[in-house]
Design a protein that fits this description.
The chain is an alpha+beta fold. Helix content is 68%, strand content 7%. The protein has three domains: 2-57; 88-137 and 268-396, MetI-like (MetI-like fold, Orthogonal Bundle), CATH 1.10.3720.10; 183-250, no CATH class. It has helices at residues 2-22, 25-57, 88-121, 126-139, 144-155, 190-218, 224-242, 267-294, 297-305, 310-340, 352-364, 367-396, and strands at residues 166-168, 172-175, 178-181, 183-186, 247-250, 253-255, 258-260, 263-265. The strands form three sheets. The chain has a four-stranded antiparallel β-sheet. Strands 4-5 form a two-stranded antiparallel sheet. β6 (253-255) and β7 (258-260) form a beta hairpin. It is globular and about 80 Å long.
């Protein structure tokens, strides 16, 4: 009888293993994900194939060969060399850089303004707290597109003409055509001054890391502000005068109906940057306020009992703990700002949507390729922003033992 029992067990073992495999959560999750990915690939393949078939039936060419054709139109703001003879591929990079420019500047200024407003919202001064609250409730409840149009049409377009420009000395001019600033001119020896400045920044970062480790081990603080000013400002100034002032400035000069020379900030960029900064800062302020409120009040009381002033209590005790709560929703605001920059088309700022998904698409008719490239750019920018913020989030997160 024993041999028969063993044979029955061996016969039922494969079915038991297969049954266990079907009930394995890891195996089932892999199977379901594989099926979902396959279905998604088939879905997009069907859509793209049908679109290409319809375009071919209408005699519309497909592919990316159009990127080598001359564009034939000008762009008001370019960070790289460009004119009408350059290709559509060049217009793509011009629009991409303009989008990245306003996104990076907007994130930078919105973060600073948002942190200031968030802290002011919790101020013990009634007037400061109320003003911050009015700002937040006003600007976050007005649509962003209306704010962009307000700054462009109601503010910047009402500035005087070039001949009646508002000026600060003989260096800065503001008029309806934009803001005109001096541009630096680098002569022989300027590379040494720049090198000294870069070395000063690197040394400041290295000393800052050392100072943090020292404070963690001994509790002693290092005057990093004075050290940073000495290395990044005083030292380059000494090198600048020793090398005979090799960096000068080229000032804008009015010739005819516009200024020439210097660097100009077009009103479209200014209006878009102002609107994005003010609008996003109102949301960041609430994120900062909630993050600070989430820190136990006992932490503040403990710091105050040690004799720390309010400014250092906020800087050294409260904000480092609040960052763990602030960073995840802050990342979402950065992503929103980058995507909201596409509203620039409403005022003619030459971003990627306006230049490439707008003018280039109208001239070439390559809708699928252009829209796909534009979507890919915004997806890449968003993923890159998320990656950098997640790396920073891991640095400030609590490490479990």
């Amino acid at each position: 009888m024993k041999p028969m029992t063993n044979s029955v067990q061996k016969a039922t073992e494969p079915s038991t293993k297969s049954t266990n495999l079907l009930y394995n959560p890891t195996f089932r999750s892999i199977v379901f994900q594989a099926v979902a990915i396959a279905a998604l690939i088939f879905f997009f393949y069907t859509i793209i194939n049908n679109a290409l078939t319809n375009l071919s039936a209408r005699g519309i060419a497909t592919g990316f060969a159009f990127l080598d054709q001359p564009a034939g139109f000008g762009i008001g703001l370019t960070l790289i060399e460009y004119d009408e003879t350059f290709s559509y591929g060049r217009t793509f990079f011009v629009g991409l850089l303009n989008t990245a420019l306003v996104s990076i500047l907007g994130i930078f200024f919105a973060t600073i303004l948002g942190f200031i407003l968030g802290i002011a919202r919790l101020s013990s001064n009634w007037l400061v707290s109320r003003l911050a609250a009015v700002y937040i409730e006003t600007f976050r409840n007005i649509p962003l597109l209306l704010q962009i149009l307000f700054w462009y049409v109601a503010v910047l377009q009402t500035l005087p003409s070039a001949r009646q420009s508002l000026s600060l000395g003989e260096a800065i001019f503001l008029n309806v055509r934009g803001l005109f600033l001096p541009t630096p001119v680098f002569e022989a020896g300027s590379s040494i001054v720049i090198g000294v400045f870069v070395l000063g920044v690197i040394a400041t970062i290295a000393i800052s890391i050392w100072a943090k480790n020292k404070q963690r081990l001994t509790g002693q603080q290092t005057p990093m502000l004075r050290i940073g000013l000495g290395l990044c400002v005083a030292l380059p100034l000494v090198a600048y005068f020793i090398m005979g002032s090799p960096i000068s400035a080229q000032y804008p000069v009015l010739k005819g109906f516009n200024f020439q020379g210097g660097v100009s900030i077009i009103p479209e960029l200014a209006a878009l940057l102002l609107a994005l900064t003010i609008y996003t800062a109102s949301f960041i302020a609430e994120i900062v306020r909630s993050g600070i409120n989430a820190v136990s009040h006992g932490q503040t009381e403990a710091a105050m009992s040690l004799g720390l002033p309010r400014s250092k209590t906020l800087k050294l005790v409260v904000i480092p703990q609040a960052l763990r709560i602030i960073i995840p929703p802050l990342t979402s605001q950065y992503l929103n700002l980058t995507k909201n920059s596409s509203l620039a088309m409403a005022i003619g700022y030459p971003d990627l949507v306006s230049v490439f998904a707008g003018t280039t698409l109208n001239q070439t008719g390559q809708a699928i390729e252009i829209i796909a490239m534009t979507m890919g750019v915004y997806l890449t920018l968003s993923l890159l922003t998320s990656l950098l913020m997640n790396i920073y989030n891991r640095k400030v997160a609590l490490v479990e033992r």
